[in-house]
Design brief:
With about 500 residues, the protein is an alpha/beta fold. It folds into 2 domains: about 350 residues, Isopropylmalate Dehydrogenase; about 100 residues, Alpha-Beta Plaits (2-Layer Sandwich). It is built from 13 helices and 22 strands. The strands form 4 sheets. An 11-stranded mixed β-sheet has the order 1-3-2-4-13-12-5-6-11-9-10, with helices on both faces. Strands 16, 17, 18, 19, 20, 21 and 22 form a 7-stranded antiparallel β-sheet that branches. Strands 7-8 form a two-stranded antiparallel ribbon. α1 packs parallel to α11, α5 crosses α6 and α7 runs parallel beside α8. The structure holds nicotinamide-adenine-dinucleotide (NAD). Nicotinamide-adenine-dinucleotide binds next to loops. The site of nicotinamide-adenine-dinucleotide has 20 residues, from loops.
Amino acid sequence: MTTSTKSLPKSKITKRSFSATPITVAYGDGIGPEIMGATLKILNAAGAKLDIEEIEIGERVYLGGNSSGIRNEAWDSLRRTKVFLKAPITTPQGGGFKSLNVTTRKVLGLYANVRPCVSYHPYIHTKHPIMDVVIVRENEEDLYGGIEHQQTDEVVQCLKLISKPGTEKIVRYAFEYARAYGRKKVTCFTKDNIMKMTDGLFHKTFDRIGEEYPDLEKEHWIVDIGAAKLAETPEIFDVIVMPNLYGDILSDVAAQITGSVGLAGSANIGEGFAMFEAIHGSAPDIAGANKANPSGLLLAAIQMLVHIKQSDIAEKIHNAWLRTIEDGIHTEDIYNSGVSKEIVGTKEFAEAVITRLGMLPQKFKQVDYGDGNKDFNIRISEVKPALRELIGVDVFLQFKDRNPENLASLLSDVESYGMKLTMITNRGTKVWPNGFPETFCTDHWRCRFARDLQQGVNYQVVIDLLQKIHHRKLEIIKTENLYVIDGQQSFSAGQGQ
Ligand code: NAD
């Protein structure tokens, strides 16, 4: 046995054995300690070579006054090992506590969230007997920047940010993953019929990078119909890549329809770090009862073993786990009448997997992780400085009168070097000029000032304009510059414009 465990802070400086890979482990909250105990016992029995540093995160850390749920010495451990096997944690109810998962993913640059969602029919009950989908979710951007503001009495805003390098990394990751694991098709879900610039960038990047992978089939679905198809006919999908929010929601849907949320593991991969966890939470309702299914965390740990190039051990455990499921040794959450032979607890399930180490599944396809050499070629293209011409500004105002004509008459003679009012929208819909009286208006207005001639101005012109608006006693809540970039209008039109 080569797995050794060290707890921080006692073992802040650890003596490493040369053959073992250092990893950081957190036992988490609720069922966390039980499923982590079971998982490590199986890894140990299979001969995983791990040098473990244990950290405490989660509920006790939060309630001890640390609003991020993780202490500095835990970050130090993660910086040392760069590999994190994490059990679920409980986020205490009430305000002020930041999501530890989102923080860890963003701070450590874990840009790719990889969730294999597989059906184990007929052993585990599912409406979808043929399902083997890998969701690759972008993990750092989109609406998860957490940049939110109350802008007016009536309107709050959350910023959706999509970057060229961020998108290129995740799209390349999906293609590289598909190629490395012998997958045939990569599908992209976006909503670029509505969000033409943000989701449009994601879709265009998918098409552009996809050309470098002629061996793989490619397709794009608008996310709403794509989601419906995924829920109805998951067998038509293989690898799916998505921006953060859609990936968050749909990877839970995909995991759930395989049979149990307790079955799925996930990998969060970055350039220098990686975190592996079950997708489910800390299940306080069954904590301490020896009822939890450790499979989600075990399958995440198998992803970790492949990542740290111990794929022979990963393969051994995965095949033994499949055999256990085939033999009808099931935890309560996956009890399948007429198929399950024995309902066991967390500990007994782990023992059953250990007993089968070295055995292969008889009905399921046996797992083969090859030589484990799965280095992906993730690079980002240089983004050349563009020719940017400032041609106007969107000025956002709080204005209590719901009539756009009254706002327009207050602004109609405000001008700065030929930049004048061309449009007013309310929640994105054009209400002036020629708006519809039926359109409901809030107190949040966008007033677009632009020049007739598409000629650039400098920012001083915008400052002069803002001063004039300010002198009208109107409340400016934010501005957005309007650019023509490399000859292309680089802002959206108003709906109805
Ligand atoms: P949950 O996933 O913990 O539980 C949902 C249901 O699934 C419960 O009935 C539970 O008993 C069952 N379940 C979950 N995992 C199981 C397993 N391995 N075996 C058998 N049954 C299992 O979701 P929740 O109840 O909404 O959340 C509980 C806590 O977990 C909350 O504090 C939440 O913030 C936290 N959470 C943490 C993570 C994480 O750390 N990654 C993720 C999600 C939720």
